[in-house]
Design a protein that fits this description.
The protein has about 475 residues and is an alpha+beta fold. About 35% of the residues lie in helices and about 25% in strands. It contains 14 helices and 23 strands. Helix 2 packs across helix 6. It is globular.
Length: about 475
């Protein structure tokens, strides 16, 4: 095992996790702060991570029959007011434009916090018959929510996301869509981010404003807190009734559509940082990493070194790998620390002795293991190594997750888990919001989801003593 290169510019995770996170965001050049609180600058390396997420999901969306559209960034206040629960849920976070040019607007414009109302207005115009259904749309955009407390990627006043909006002929179709997209997100966590999610349904208290049912993928961070990483919503026909989205069915009757929405955002970047990162910086899963392989020449002035490095780069790029050759005049030690900080999964070193022996020295970022690979076998070994690193990272995160779900039978046990041990307290619950409110008031933990596995393990709710009807996971969260 190679000795880890400790970067003194980063606070240790176990000393101050919040400061460690901020240090990594800045030092790895993922983002910078703008002059307006909560509105960050996505630097090229940070945005490139988002592009990989976007590319992966965009392919999955289109493969499941969705089309990309783009809606306006502003919503007339009169339109926004049409769905009561939706308005109440978002009103405290809205940024509102009251002046256009030099004139006061009669109907103020809300900078979109989400786009349900815009999609509903459009759907009502373009749907008249069952032949027009389903409509399965997705939008890549930014939204604005005026947050009091902000943190890069995790909670911002503006963030990038995708929002899917679909309408269907039947309730069953819409419910199938809601759960199908949850599966797409869950698979993305495993296959792209090397993050195991906990999945399940949100409680009535925690569901999306205006939804009948909300489902979630939740990730567990290194510090034992949860992060809501994506949600899907079944709206029923509530929005359809409010906005008049109707169609004539095959039987000649005019009916309301059934609707869904679903989204993930750039907080996934925050999840990647906090699940996988270490005291040396980022540790990026190979398939989401902007640079999958970095080639560092040793004694690059020596004959043959740079020519061979360029050859290696070209060979790997022909395999559609994302490769960087650092041919700057900085020292190898500086380069090692730099790409360690940036979390590049594989570092290839080539020096005179390596060249003489027809090998390269390879270092794995996730565990700092060093191995030698024959130059002749590069095309076979590097893709396999990337797959191995991904699986090792996933299994490490899965082990932490499974060790951080604790069944609790008393309120004191719940408090011990969420306040001391960290992770999820798995509790039997009566279903009453009063018990949720008490837990939040006493511990600042919230219900994260009711997992799909609802096998009961006790009969009563430990908070109130009433009959327990649901298994629910509680945790502190970002």
């Amino acid at each position: 095992m190679e000795k880890q290169l400790k970067n003194d510019a980063i606070t240790s995770r176990d000393v101050d996790f919040a400061q460690w996170y901020t240090d990594v965001c800045r030092k790895a050049e993922l983002m910078d702060y703008s002059s307006v609180k909560g509105f960050i600058i996505y630097r090229p390396y940070g945005y490139a991570i988002w592009e990989q997420i976007q590319k992966h999901l965009d392919e999955k969306f289109k493969a499941t029959g969705h089309e990309n559209v783009y809606m306006p960034m502003v919503i007339p206040e009169s339109l926004f007011q049409k769905e009561k629960d939706h308005v109440e849920g978002f009103a405290p976070e809205c940024a509102i434009i009251t002046i256009g040019g030099k004139n006061k607007l009669d109907d103020p414009l809300i900078v979109r916090p989400t786009s349900e109302t815009l999609f509903c207005e459009h759907f009502a115009k373009v749907v008249s018959s069952y032949r027009d259904l389903p409509k399965k749309y997705n939008q890549w955009c930014s939204v604005v929510r005026w947050e009091k407390t902000t943190r890069p990627f995790l909670r911002g006043s503006e963030f990038l996301w995708q929002e899917g909006h679909t309408i269907h002929r039947t309730k069953d179709e819409a419910k199938h869509e809601t759960l199908m997209m949850l599966d797409v997100y869950n698979a993305m966590g495993k296959d792209l981010l090397a993050i195991p999610f906990v999945t399940g349904q949100k409680t009535e208290k925690e569901k999306f404003a205006g939804a009948e049912e909300t489902y979630t993928v939740e990730a567990l961070m290194h510090d034992g807190k949860a992060l809501q990483s994506g949600t899907t919503h079944y709206f029923g026909d509530g929005f359809a009734k409010a906005f008049g989205i109707t169609f004539q069915d095959q039987d000649g009757k005019v009916k309301n559509v059934y609707q869904t929405s679903w989204g993930v955002s750039t907080r996934l970047i925050g999840a990647i940082i906090m699940v996988h990162g270490d005291d040396n910086g980022l540790v990026l899963p190979p398939y989401v990493a902007p640079i999958q392989v970095v080639i560092v020449p040793i004694q690059q002035a020596k004959p043959g070194i740079m020519n061979k490095c360029h050859e290696l780069k070209e060979r790997l790029e022909k395999m559609n790998l994302r490769v960087k050759l650092d041919d700057t005049d900085r020292t190898p030690g500086w380069k090692f620390a730099e790409y360690e900080m940036k979390g590049v999964p594989v570092r290839i070193e080539l020096g005179p002795r390596d060249l003489e022996n027809n090998v390269v020295t390879v270092c794995k970022r996730n565990n700092h293991e060093k191995i030698q690979i024959s130059i002749d076998r590069l095309e076979d070994e590097i893709p396999q190594l990337l797959a191995t690193i991904h699986e090792e990272m996933y299994q490490k995160a899965l082990k932490q997750l499974l060790n951080s779900i604790t069944e609790v039978h008393t309120y004191d046990e719940l408090k011990e888990v969420v306040n001391v041990k960290g992770g999820y307290a798995k509790m039997m619950w009566c279903g009453c919001e009063e018990c949720e409110n008490k837990i939040k008031e006493d511990t600042n933990a919230t219900s994260r989801c009711m997992p799909f596995d609802q096998k009961p393990f006790m009969d009563t709710c430990p908070i109130c003593g009433k009959k327990a009807t649901k298994v629910v996971l509680f945790a502190k969260a970002y």
